[in-house]
Amino acid sequence: MYYSNYTISNTVILLIINYHNEKFYLTFILNYIIILDIIMKKLLILLTLPLLGLFSHASHAVVAGGIVAINHQWPFNGQYTKMSFFQQINQDGGTKSHYYWANQFFFKGGDGAYIGLQNRSGGVKAVNYSIWGASSWKSGKCNNFGHEGTGVQCELIYPWAVGHAYRLDVSKNGNIVTGTVTDLNDNKSTQIAQIEVPSTYGKLYASSGFVEEYSQGNQQLPTCYTMGAENAVFKNPIADNTVVARQTTYTYGACNDPYIVEASCNTSSCQNTINDLKNIPSPFAPSIAVTNGQEITQDQLKTALSGENLIVIQMQDGKWSPKVSFPSASSLPWKSITIDQKAGYNTTLYMNNTTVQVAKGQNVTYTSISGVWKKVN
């Protein structure tokens, strides 16, 4: 079954109607609110990871960011000392991808946290574990962060394997919260870190999940259609080894296109897939109208790109333009133009004080990088 996008207002209305029959209603509402509240926090923490090398100015068009969200529905008023999350990554996007398969969890009377598998530059595999509001740790490779809140972020360079199932445990004992990863193929467990939280932090009571592609800076993606192929299974989480949460999922974000991303759940797990379209835009990509035999002008493209990161010009017999004049790249930083040429005649592109011929069957994308239109596929 495929779960389409929800809005907070629609979800609240739905759950209030079912108030007397659905004991999970409050946690379900909270998960939507929490996801929105934590998006900026998690992106800022990712910037602190020492191995990413992503601090230079953006030079391409898209930060994909969050793509898939997974809601967990726990029994109303449940509070726990342990939560276990289950992940199996079947496709990881390849060595140029930066995916984070995360599980968020929250403390009664405290702040939020997350734990999950990552792939990083050059094929490095890791586990990321962070808690907001924490200030110290007892073990692990950790550091303090101070952007949009404060907390402790820990990492474990860990060679997790595609196709293996993993369990990620967080256990609270007093003020110490321990993160552990277990490869379920051999049941070998590895401690990630022990983080100390304030005494005001109570038990674990809510959670959710997400998948994001966090490539930034010089490694940023030219378009949404260049994301590496990804497939992941999130099995239903378990609290205190006995209580099983239900899950729903939806897709969202800058690259939310049904040709790019799919997500669905059954009674025991949620699965998501991101398709590598090889920089071929989907039919849902924004496009510009083509009048047969007439030039597409700089002003037309500049206007179209004012509200979009990418515009597709689809050519075919009866809808063919002999000339496309690109606007100045410096006036439209990090924007992209795709020419999908299916007409029987060539089209001449005017850009960078030169011309380029696009023949039948070609699909080319140009991105404005450092004041110049550059071919990116």
UniProtKB/TrEMBL annotation:
<dbReference type="InterPro" id="IPR021862">
    <property type="entry name" value="DUF3472"/>
</dbReference>
<keyword id="KW-1133">Transmembrane helix</keyword>
<feature type="domain" description="Metalloprotease StcE beta-sandwich">
    <location>
        <begin position="309"/>
        <end position="374"/>
    </location>
</feature>
<keyword id="KW-0812">Transmembrane</keyword>
<dbReference type="Pfam" id="PF11958">
    <property type="entry name" value="DUF3472"/>
</dbReference>
<dbReference type="Pfam" id="PF20944">
    <property type="entry name" value="StcE_b-sandwich"/>
</dbReference>
<keyword id="KW-0472">Membrane</keyword>
<dbReference type="InterPro" id="IPR048990">
    <property type="entry name" value="StcE_b-sandwich"/>
</dbReference>
<protein>
    <recommendedName>
        <fullName>Metalloprotease StcE beta-sandwich domain-containing protein</fullName>
    </recommendedName>
</protein>
<feature type="transmembrane region" description="Helical">
    <location>
        <begin position="24"/>
        <end position="40"/>
    </location>
</feature>
